[in-house]
Specification:
The protein is mostly helical and about 400 residues long. Helix content is about 75%, strand content about 0%. It has a domain of about 220 residues. The protein is globular and about 65 Å long.
Length: about 400
């Protein structure tokens, strides 16, 4: 499938390897990096192919950024490309959280983690705010009267999905499907539906301390994380409540503090936020548990991306399907923007219930300004600077 590729498979794999060890900011930022680097700068992937990947990733359960990466690997290099990209993207952050998990267990906790996360979390908010803004402009249109008039329905999907995500802190796939169906039926209805009101109504209604501990838990770990990978839709934000219910409330593998530390580890390490499953699996059953949890989580999303990918790409040329994808994309980007708001609220009000943590807000604002004004500054450098600033602030506060 590489006859149309302007890049080699090695180049693509190396890009995702780098994104896996240096891509901070969670799913919103990661899908933004892919668009910026692969679509805008290098032009390896077309805007249409990127949109198709976003739509398929959101329609399938599992981590959004990993699914999009797998699809982009499939575009020109088929199953081999999808497989190598998926491995390259996930492995770096998996090894990082595994190493932190080992240190966590040996040394009895991470007292410095909260101080580092204080600065890192605020910086990450700045990164993902800018990423969500750029994705909005690219996918839906500019913030001007002409764009709003032309794409008013997409803006409605965008705003509704964003508000729904903020209010419910969830991203239901039915919302995205509904947006796609409605936009398709209005903009480019299939021939067999044109002029058939009854069909329109019917269509809308379809909706060891190191290697192995607690080996008796392995079956439960495998099955639980398979469900997490196969049935939870949306970004890392969506999977966290599901994980909390299972690992803390149902099985008791982690206590509340350990679970919060697991989420913090995922946020301060690069790659997909869902890689926290490796940290959780390690605390539950050592290295074997970590490997099993990661494999069980990512394998379903890999299969559910690769299997429909060739058919999805073929039918995506249809004008009705394009309208369907445009509608879904508007809702997806809106939901991602809503997720940014939820994460920002949680970060800026941490341990304060209502009042705003001003230093965190200032770090986030400074991050956005730096990314806009200083062209050569990189996100990892800002992350490191914010981590140091967080340690200093916690010492003096």
């Amino acid at each position: 499938m590489n006859d149309k590729a302007t890049y080699s498979l090695r180049q693509l794999v190396m890009y995702f390897l780098k994104l896996g060890y240096a891509g901070f900011g969670g799913p919103v930022a990661l899908v933004g990096y892919m668009h910026r680097d692969l679509v805008e700068k290098r032009k390896w992937i077309s805007e249409e192919e990127y949109k198709e990947g976003m739509a398929l990733a959101q329609l399938s359960p599992g981590p959004l950024a990993a699914q999009l990466g797998i699809y982009l690997g499939f575009v020109h290099y088929g199953v081999l490309g999808a497989t190598l990209v998926g491995i390259a993207f996930v492995l770096p952050s998996f090894f990082m959280v595994l190493a932190i998990g080992i240190a966590y267990k040996i040394y009895g906790g991470l007292p410095w983690m909260q101080a580092v996360f204080y600065g890192v979390g605020a910086c990450v908010i700045g990164i993902i705010v800018l990423s969500a803004y750029k994705l909005t402009l690219k996918s839906i249109g500019k913030l001007d009267a002409e764009s709003i008039r032309k794409n008013w329905l997409l803006w409605i999907f965008y705003l509704f999905a964003g508000a729904f995500t903020v209010i419910t802190q969830s991203e239901p796939v039915t919302l995205f499907i509904a947006a796609g169906i409605i936009y398709m039926l209005i903009k480019a209805p299939p021939k067999f539906l044109r002029g058939t009101a009854a069909s329109f109504v019917m269509f809308l209604s379809a909706p060891s301390v190191i290697w192995l501990e607690h080996k008796d838990r392995l079956w439960d770990i495998g099955w639980f994380f398979t469900k997490a990978g196969a049935f939870v839709f949306g970004s890392g934000l969506a999977i966290v409540p599901f994980l909390h219910t299972g690992v803390v409330s149902q099985f008791g593998w982690l206590n509340e503090k350990q679970f919060l530390d697991a989420v913090a580890v995922a946020m301060i390490t690069p790659g997909p936020v869902v890689i926290t499953v490796g940290f959780i699996g390690y605390l539950a059953a050592g290295v074997t548990g970590a490997c099993l949890a990661a494999l069980a989580t990512f394998l379903p999303c890999y299969l559910l991306t690769v299997i429909p990918a060739p058919y999805f790409k073929k039918i995506a040329k249809n004008t009705s399907i394009k309208a369907f994808v445009d509608g879904i994309t508007a809702a997806v980007i809106g939901a991602l923007a809503g997720a940014v708001i939820v994460i920002a609220i949680n970060t800026f009000t941490q341990n304060r219930s209502v009042s705003i943590d001003i230093p965190s807000v200032l770090i986030a604002v400074a991050t956005v300004v730096a990314l806009l004004k200083v062209k050569k500054i990189s996100e990892p450098l800002l992350i490191v600077m914010a981590a140091g600033l967080g340690l200093v602030l916690k010492l003096v506060m």
